Amino acid sequence: EREEATGVAPTPVRVAVGGAFGRMGREAVELVRATEHFLLVGTVDRRGRSLEGVPGFSSVDELFSAVRPDVYVDFTSPEAVYGHTRAALEAGVRPVVGTTGLAREEIEELAALARSKRLGAVIAPNFSLGAAVIRRAAALAARFFPHVEIVEMHHDQKKDAPSGTALLLAEAVAEARGGRAGGVLGEAGSPPSPDHPARGVLAFGVPVHSVRLPGFVAHHELLFGGDGEWLTLRVDTVTRRAFMPGLRYAVERVLELEELVYGLDRLLEREL
Ligand code: NAD
């Protein structure tokens, strides 16, 4: 049994990765292996493969009964993520979850479980540092520039519109304006208001324009109109590597937490 000492990071940090053979999971495995003070102690994937020298499992239950990581990173699927995160907390393992699709009530239940066990947990649907910083910058700008519209541009394979990140940005603007923002998770966009014909959809009262064209990856822009000036905030995410510094930060910080934090921006804010 390893010593449980809150606030003191174990060295090395023993990390397991769920969804290790998926697109994000492979990047996460590479990150853990490339980070000197991280040690990859196990992988989970439905595909049931394993990496050389690292035990591989086909379920988290098998993983947690065989190895006890300090941190469990999840990039699996919306159907599996709640059960995986719960299993980690129940096993006394700190989850860092990148998988999207958790419902608001599920996040609240996981937060209550983490609190009762005094275990750190991070759930972040977007680990990009740029997206976290722009959300904070948007909140600052919204206090001084009342007029804002959001443009988000993605590849034409993306099914949802507006993007989850655009909704989070709209929510940050609404929060800064002092309006009801709809909680930590955001809400779906609403149809254009009669006051704003042909101006995208309104999300938290902010017009959001969605562009879907081949060639784009993931781009978000906030345009603030002022008196004789305007301000543009823009973030472009072009490869999955963009998520890795934020993921590494979350794996390090979760060891010091005793509760669940939702959103990388909220985790960064604790630093400021
Ligand atoms: P993917 O389909 O490429 O990979 C998922 C992997 O998880 C697969 O290898 C699959 O076999 C495995 N898996 C699925 N269900 C499982 C289960 N029940 N048990 C064990 N293994 C299981 O998907 P992806 O593109 O890597 O995305 C994974 C998730 O990460 C999605 O929810 C996606 O939206 C999210 N995502 C998050 C961020 C972020 O920054 N937080 C960035 C990109 C994608």
Task: Please tell me about this protein's structure.
With 272 residues, the protein is of the alpha/beta class. Helix content is 32%, strand content 23%. It contains eight helices and twelve strands. The protein has helices at residues 23-34, 60-66, 81-90, 104-117, 129-144, 164-176, 244-253, 264-269, and strands at residues 13-18, 38-44, 56-57, 71-74, 94-97, 121-123, 147-154, 201-203, 206-212, 218-225, 230-237, 260-262. The strands form two sheets. A seven-stranded parallel sheet has the order 3-2-1-4-5-6-12, sandwiched between helices. α4 links the parallel β5 (94-97) and β6 (121-123). α3 runs parallel beside α4. It is globular. Bound molecules: nicotinamide-adenine-dinucleotide (NAD).
What are the salient characteristics of this protein?
binds nicotinamide-adenine-dinucleotide; 8 helices; five-stranded mixed β-sheet; 272 residues; alpha/beta; seven-stranded parallel β-sheet
Brief characterization of the structure:
With 272 residues, the protein is α/β, with parallel strands linked by helices. It is 32% helix and 23% strand.
Ligand kinds:
nicotinamide-adenine-dinucleotide
DSSP strand (E) fraction? 15-25%
Largest sheet: 7 strands, parallel
Number of helices: 8
Question: Structural class of the secondary elements?
Answer: alpha/beta
Mean pLDDT: 88
Helix content: 25-40%
Radius of gyration: 20 Å
Please report the distance between the alpha carbons of the first and last residues: 35 Å
Shape: globular
Major sheet: arrangement of strands? 3-2-1-4-5-6-12
Tally the beta strands. Answer: 12
* Helix-strand pattern: EHEEHEHEHEHEHEEEEHEH
Low-pLDDT stretches are 180-189
